[in-house]
Amino acid sequence: MKKDSAGHGQGCLCSLGRKDAAGGAIQSWAVTSKRSFDTKKTNGGGACGAGHKLLEIYRLLEKHFGATGWWPGDSPFEISVGAILTQNTNWSNVEKALARIKAQGALSPQALYEMPEAELAELIRPAGYFRVKARRLRAFLRLVMEDLGGDFDGLLRLPAKRLRELLLRVHGIGPETADDIVLYAAGRPVFVVDAYTRRILGRHGLLRAAAPYEEIRSFLEGALPRRTKLFKEFHALIVYAGKHYCRKVPRCAVCPLGTIKPIVVDGGNGDIQSAGGRIESPHFP
Ligand code: SF4
Predict the structure, then answer these.
(1) Segment 74-98, tens digit of pLDDT
(2) 71 within ligand 1 shell (Cβ under 6 A)
(3) Domains in the chain, ordered, with CATH?
């Protein structure tokens, strides 16, 4: 790829300013990173400035928190159930619900599908909103058992786009939960955008926190090397940083990202609620 004197390739987002290929999610970005990253590993056409800063954020968080290993689960099905149960609750509550399902020997599409909804709700009670989540879980199980003849592995083998489409049709599964399943259960490189992603990357001037989900997802997937492991770890690290440091009142002085100064820490776009970032799944410890 032909590069200019700053090392940016043709089509680099750095040169595009406020309105760009991602439809305006990206604010103009001056490359301030002193660290040198291997841009050969980034996607072609547009990874330079934003990609550098995102990778710097990733490496600072990884250095601070270490490898997270998310998502925990003995099987893709367990991960999928966990992704639905973790909406609006802490992971520790999900673990309790999963333990109860396992204790009954019911952690399979068939067993959960055959369970009456009231019984399923009672089983997952520790996860909170248990009646709502039982309904959502059953909608997901109907997709697997009725539409796909019980072939859960086949569901995960579908092309990522088709898998996403099917998941998004399920009652109660929004883009974040769908992408949790696509990334962590199916192992496909989609970037999960949650409220902490909006808050942290918005505060660091990389995106407009209130931008639509798909706009942010496509920006991140275009700016980063498209690798499943990176996307898994990056999402988890962002959640860790959000929970520990980047709260409504940010703790920049002690945050591992404090060395790369935030641009906006108030004025609305760093606020999860005002940014339009409904907390679909504030999971992870
Ligand atoms: S706490 Fe401050 S330095 Fe840390 S991620 Fe948030 S805005 Fe950035």
Answers:
(1) 999 999 999 999 999 999 999 999 9
(2) no
(3) 13-66+193-254 (1.10.1670.10), 76-185 (1.10.340.30)
